[in-house]
Amino acid sequence: QAQDRLASEATDAPDGANAPASPDALADRLYLPILSNVSGQPPVCRMGVNVANVPASSFDLAQLHLGWYIDYKAHVTAPHPNGASYMPVINLAQDGDSGFTASPSGASLDTAIAQNPGADWIIGNEPDRRFYQNDMMPKAYANAYHSLYYYIKAKDPSARIFAGAIVQPTPLRLEYLNEVLANYWEMFGEAL
């Protein structure tokens, strides 16, 4: 509407020029559509956030109309503000050459899976980061992902499983991902 108004103003110019508004006249403006046919709360969007070091209930997440959030844990009861999805994260630690420990695990993990049916699970957090976060060698991460993927899917076939995020897409970290994929294929004969 604003673009039409500008074009109309250019057409109604006092000097009689009937040229449409130039692209330069519109270049410094951003026009966004207005949701005029939505009553009540706007729909939940696909945007998500990280909530770290404090409970999600400490924030008024509902006002953001989030689609999802993570808190780097796998809670049994997590709030769902405005229907936002909670994405549980299983943290990892390397044990030996290719072994791992997971948190949560055992009965705690079983309960979290049962209480979050159909959840989007994230396996690990920045496994490529040395000395912080999950700090996993590619072979150990491939083993952890495979084990936890099939463990969760056996208990909840509707769950979706995602690999943990890397720190940033630098050439070295992309090589880490290539090593994970190669190790996974070598160890299990299938693609991650």
Main attributes of the structure:
alpha/beta, four-stranded mixed sheet, 7 strands, three-stranded parallel sheet, single chain
Task: Write up this protein.
The protein is α/β, with parallel strands linked by helices. Helix content is 31%, strand content 15%. The chain has helices at residues 2-11, 23-26, 106-115, 138-155, 171-188, and strands at 48-50, 68-70, 85-86, 89-95, 99-103, 120-123, 160-163. The strands form two sheets. A four-stranded mixed beta sheet has the order 5-4-6-7, with helices on one face. Strands 1-2-3 form a three-stranded parallel beta sheet, with no helix packed on it. The two termini are 48 Å apart. Mean pLDDT is 83; it is low at 1-8 and 10-18.
